[in-house]
Design goal:
alpha/beta; about 20% helix; F-box associated domain-containing protein; 16-stranded mixed beta sheet
């Protein structure tokens, strides 16, 4: 059957969808976009996709040409339009677009396998929308807050950081009510997030960062950077292997503030090894744009594991911006710079 035929059958009844779920079809991608007035789900080969689902937050008017779908026992009015190569579906939310979004997402993933790309982009955070995301898939990227978003709750942060799997999670949010998020590691289970990029950081506990291998933070203060280094030396923040931190406008006093109470030595990395690390992450600045590079080594007290802290400036010389990178001497990083060869 074609994908359109499978979709038509799957929305007839719960039983039909269960049967199709035994023989899942492959979808190349799902792209979810959440805005203030509607949620869209684009399915199929991007950028156009095969299906385009739109769920407005307002109640759409009834149309005699609407078809009826059954999603998790709910009867849904759907307006269907065809704009080759894409089919556009507008789902009537009947006042609860967030719940309908969750039903649609679960329906799609119950009878299809996502092959390549599963991404989410949030320009708004309607109440309850975060918890509707499907937790059985690995998202390529979850991007929340092009501009800083308010309205994210402590429960939203916990769901994102402890229950979803993502290669990249970008958070530019304010947590309301204002509180400091406390990460809870569940036993020996590896972190579900591979890379965390933080914009607004009012909710971050710098002494105990989320247990994630790669952490990038924009425009944090110098004292927070000092806290991160001291905590790592004391045995906390131990899951972080790569750090990327923007410190704002360059000042000669910055290093003094950052390394207050932190013992450091001249790095034993060669220039080639340092440059190999600085070229290893796609979100790092182009190494050709970095200048005034200084590298120092720090040591974790309990096991003498080293980390190299690299300072650099970037941007126009009239307004230089200071960057700081942390490379923990983990096996993965030593392979990256060529010290370990398999």
């Amino acid at each position: 059957m074609s994908l359109d035929e499978r979709l038509h059958l799957s929305v007839l009844s719960k039983r039909a969808n269960c049967i199709l779920g035994l023989y899942k079809a492959i979808l190349s991608s799902i792209l979810i976009t959440v805005k203030a007035h509607h949620i869209t789900v684009r399915v199929g080969k991007l950028p156009c996709g095969t299906w385009y689902f739109e769920i407005p937050f307002y109640s759409s008017s009834q149309d005699n040409n609407n078809v009826v779908w059954n999603l998790e026992g709910s009867t849904i009015q759907v307006k269907r339009s065809h704009y080759p190569p894409q089919t556009h579906f507008v789902l009537s939310a009947d006042g609860n677009a967030v719940a309908l979004f969750g039903k649609l997402l679960r329906h799609l993933t119950s009878s299809h396998s996502i092959q390549n790309c599963f991404e989410c982009k949030f320009y708004a955070i309607p109440d309850g929308v975060i918890s509707q995301l499907e937790s059985n898939y690995i998202y390529d990227k979850i991007d929340i807050g092009n501009d800083r978003l308010e309205g994210v709750t402590p429960e939203d942060l916990r769901f994102l950081l402890e229950h979803l799997r993502a290669k990249v999670l970008r958070l530019n949010v304010e947590c309301l009510p204002i509180s400091i998020y406390k990460y809870e590691k569940h036993g020996d289970k590896d972190s579900l997030i591979q890379k965390l990029i933080i914009g607004s950081y009012s909710w971050v506990n710098f002494a105990e960062l989320p247990s994630i291998r790669v952490i990038s933070i924009w425009r944090e203060g110098l004292h927070q950077m000092n806290t991160i280094l001291k905590s790592w030396i004391a045995g906390k923040n131990r899951q972080m292997e790569i750090g990327d931190f923007e410190l704002g406008k360059y000042s000669e006093r910055n290093r003094e503030i950052i390394f207050t109470g932190v013992e450091s030595d001249t790095t034993s990395l060669t220039t080639a090894e340092r440059n190999a690390f600085l070229s290893s992450e796609s979100h790092f600045p182009n190494i050709k744009a970095l200048r005034d590079i200084v590298a120092l080594d720090i040591t974790r007290e309990e096991d003498w594991l080293r980390a190299t802290v690299i300072e650099a400036t970037t941007g126009p010389s009239s307004q230089p911006t200071q960057k700081m990178f942390v490379m923990v001497w983990s096996d993965a990083n030593l392979r990256t710079i060529g010290r370990i060869v398999d």
